[in-house]
Write a structure and sequence with these properties.
Largest sheet: 9 strands, antiparallel
Strand order of the largest sheet: 13-12-11-8-7-6-3-18-20
Helix content: 10-25%
Number of strands: 20
Shape: globular
Strand content: 25-35%
Order of helices and strands: HEEEEEEEEEHHEEEEEHHHEEEEEE
Distance between the termini: 27 Å
Length: 360
Amino acid sequence: MNSTSPFHLSTVCCGLVFVLAVLSQSVMACTRAVYLGPEQTVITVRSMDWASDIGSNLWFFPRDMQRDGACGPDSIKWTSKYGSVVSTAFDAATADGMNEKGLVTSLLYLAESQYPQPSENETRKPICISVWAQYVLDQYATVAEAVEAIRKEPFYVVPVMSPDGHAGTVHLAISDPTGDSAIFEYVDGKLVIHHGREFQVMTNSPVYDQQLALNAYWEQIGGTVMLPGTNRAADRFARASFYIKAIPQTANMEKAIASCFGVIRNASVPLGITTPGQPNISSTRWRTVSDHKNLRYFFESTLSPSVFWINVGELDFDSEATVKKLTVSDGTIYSGNAAKNFVATPAFEFLPAEATGPTD
């Protein structure tokens, strides 16, 4: 479905009531936004917020890798068409990344996710959420191509507990060099897709339709008058939505990248911050800034004094290339183009899940 209908005041009020109802839930926090500048200047930013250190590292994957959905022998299987550079969670899941065509995937927490239950005559193949973002990077060059294919539901997503014991409930955002975006959520067991350049921002709870309604309220007030300042998902959504459009619209990449870093830092949560009554609203662990135009992937750890990047467009993703790892979880500090610091390493294993059996 394309979410394009206008939002009325009653919808906004209902959304506000819903947010008040979910504030007591334990949620993990992340923010994602897409900058649409002149001369095809498109930049995707995201923060990774989590309750504990998730041991993230960067990985280089060549083309033609044999993959499966990490749900046992009946999992969906594929051969990767495109190489990619990704940021992991626990070195057991792809959380974020860019492929060689400039497609970017961002996996964010969504407590309200409810995934499909397969039927007795199920024809779809299972895929674990740990592999979901990687599947998209492996298979598709554009958002439109991904939406067309995934709308047919060749697989159903299976959740899994994270290694540190949190429920694996997520939604997925993708963006490409044209500025196109799509948001994939599972609501009440059904796949919901929001597709279009207008879907620039995503955070966490509530579900995306209600986030849009809440943001419509803040757009009526105007960001120069007042913006919500807490670390709650709805507040971060409002701030990111305002600032990603308010920053200078420029084709000067140095200035555009700097402005986009400012947006995602504004939506970040300082390390060590806790919220009374909401112990799992989480500190920002790292941020990425993806320059779609120049195929450059920036990474900033909150524990590092410097930003580094990978020139994805200059990498050799030939099928004969070796899987490589750039270790950041040990505190190593990089700056500038860190591609030379990748080290050949056996590929990590994606966190597996048991596929849900058929239901009557």
